[in-house]
Q: What sequence folds into this?
């Protein structure tokens, strides 16, 4: 792959941990041409500072893209100050994309939109991370030449994504605040690290697992391979 088209959906706790490391690797340790797009309709506020780092107030995608441009001049950096939804997912996720889904755990429907869109494409990699206070998981959906090499995000092992009806969750962009479970930046960073590890395994053609589960208190990190 001589070029990479990477989308990061959600620039919150996980996204803020993931992006600096991802950008540094792409600029200094990868010889590929990269287009990096940040997608988020949310606005950074001082109350987010315990888990998120921004140099200015404003839309998270725009502010973070501006910050990264200043440090990583070799990357093509773009910002989409909108929430991903069922109407614009076709615009945001396209053939050959690598998508890091870093959305809040409450936005289950967003994961469903991403999962459904991936099944419409021949070649795509979806890396989806989420966590609660001290545990979390990362899921990988790798599709190549129209075939699933790993399971979609929505599958029988994750019925909450396969059929999100009844989930107490307002639609992204509706202006209603969602109360999230308590989180700490250390756990966000662990999830981001596992997402980046899977991304590197993909680049090296070594990605052969569907999920990674982690428990920060016990130090347990477990990969899972599902039956196709």
A:
């Amino acid at each position: 792959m001589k070029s990479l088209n990477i989308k990061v959906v959600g620039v919150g706790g996980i996204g803020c941990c993931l992006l600096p490391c991802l950008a540094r690797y792409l600029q200094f340790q990868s010889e590929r041409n990269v287009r990096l797009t940040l997608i988020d309709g949310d606005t950074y506020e001082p109350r987010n500072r315990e888990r998120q780092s921004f140099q200015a107030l404003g839309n998270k995608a725009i502010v973070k893209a501006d910050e990264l441009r200043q440090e990583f001049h070799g990357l093509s950096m773009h910002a989409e100050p909108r929430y991903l939804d069922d109407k614009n997912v076709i615009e945001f996720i396209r053939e050959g994309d690598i998508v890091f889904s870093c959305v809040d755990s409450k936005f289950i429907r967003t994961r469903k939109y991403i999962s459904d869109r991936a099944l419409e494409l021949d070649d795509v990699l979806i890396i989806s991370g989420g966590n609660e206070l001290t545990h979390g998981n990362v899921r990988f959906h790798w599709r190549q030449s129209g075939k699933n090499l790993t399971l979609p995000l929505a599958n029988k092992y994750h019925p909450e994504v396969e059929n999100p009806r009844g989930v107490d969750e307002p639609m992204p962009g509706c202006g209603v605040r969602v109360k999230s479970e308590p989180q700490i930046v250390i756990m966000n960073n662990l999830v981001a690290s596992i997402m980046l590890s899977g991304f590197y395994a993909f680049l090296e053609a070594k990605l052969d697992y569907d999920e990674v589960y982690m428990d920060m208190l016990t130090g347990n990190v477990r990969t899972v391979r599902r039956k196709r």
Observations:
- Residues 166-178 have pLDDT under 50 and may be disordered.
- The first strand starts at residue 3 and ends at 9.
- The CA atoms of residues 20 and 204 lie 21 Å apart.
